[in-house]
Amino acid sequence: MMYVKWIVMIPPILSLYFSARILMNNLRYDEAALGMLFSNMDETAILISVFAVSMIIFSATRVMDLIDLFWPIPGNDEIIAAMIWLIDIVLVYIFYRVATVTVPAERNI
User: Which residue ranges traverse the bilayer (predicted)?
Assistant: First the structure.
């Protein structure tokens, strides 16, 4: 039963790791990272759309949290925590895709 507590930590840790990889790719490859991200417009458009939807849901959880401050709703905290955890899984996917797209492939000359 103790392992279940650690499994819940996997998506936030992966989200932190992949977002740090994106930052390192942008610092290391500068314009090349942005060029590679926007050269594949279909995938980038899908990633931005999924990111926007996840941020809308995340904002909804913040509103639910504010409502809970003034009018406590039973079980609201658990719903918010589950929604944020699911959003984190989506963000892991988005950050992974962006991190893999923004790295130039090794070229054999």
Answer: 45-67, 79-99
